[in-house]
Design brief:
By secondary structure, the chain is of the alpha+beta class. The chain has 6 helices and 7 strands, in the order αβαβαβββαβαβα. It has one domain: NADH Oxidase.
């Protein structure tokens, strides 16, 4: 699978089947983040790969309403950093951008391996940081849910989530987010 195929195939499914988690799988995913670009090669990202059942169960208590589907995950990757880990130029802080790039590399590698890697924002950051022993000064940016796509739709999903399992949700038109040379010149196909 080439990069374009992985990008097209990547989906944020919520119906998951279990997979075996091995150190080789973790290393394969982590090595993609390791070679991700970052400002001045500062590599601001930090990841915790959570796969022990007891730890996962505790982490699931931090989830927001509507994320019950996450409980089928075989692994969760906690993605965290802090501004001082990366370039700060004036008021621009690059740590979120660079950590996002590294996370995208992990997601694409998971897709290439036939897995689902679904990042979520619906969790209690402070509670999750506490459970994972992440230092107070760090920001827990996202949790990436890892599993295998199940053909059976998870019954805990809302109707709109069930629809998203069957078809890719609509995407914005290029004209809605592409501009040429300045903000006042929209891209037109």
């Amino acid at each position: 699978m080439n990069v374009k195929e992985a990008i097209i195939k990547r989906r944020a499914y919520r119906s998951l089947d279990p997979i075996d988690i091995s150190k080789d799988l973790i290393k394969s995913l982590a090595k993609m983040a390791q070679i991700s670009p970052s400002c001045a090669n500062k590599q601001p990202w930090r990841f915790i790969f959570i796969y022990e059942k007891e730890r996962l169960q505790k982490l699931f208590t931090t989830l927001s309403e509507g994320n019950k589907w996450v409980e089928k995950a075989s692994m969760v990757i906690a993605v965290f950093s802090k501004p001082e880990n990366d370039c700060i130029i004036g008021e621009r802080q690059y740590y979120l951008f660079d950590t996002g790039l590294a996370t995208a590399f992990i997601i694409l590698r998971a897709t290439e391996l036939g897995l689902i890697a679904h990042p979520i924002a619906g969790f209690n950051e402070n509670k999750a940081k506490n459970l994972l022993e992440i230092p107070e000064e760090m920001r827990l940016i996202t949790l990436v849910i890892i599993g295998k796509h199940s053909k059976e739709i998870n019954p805990v999903l809302s109707d709109s989530m069930k629809l998203g399992e069957k078809q890719r949700p609509p995407r914005m038109n290029l004209e809605d987010f592409i501009f040429l040379n300045n903000y006042n010149t929209k891209y037109i196909e």
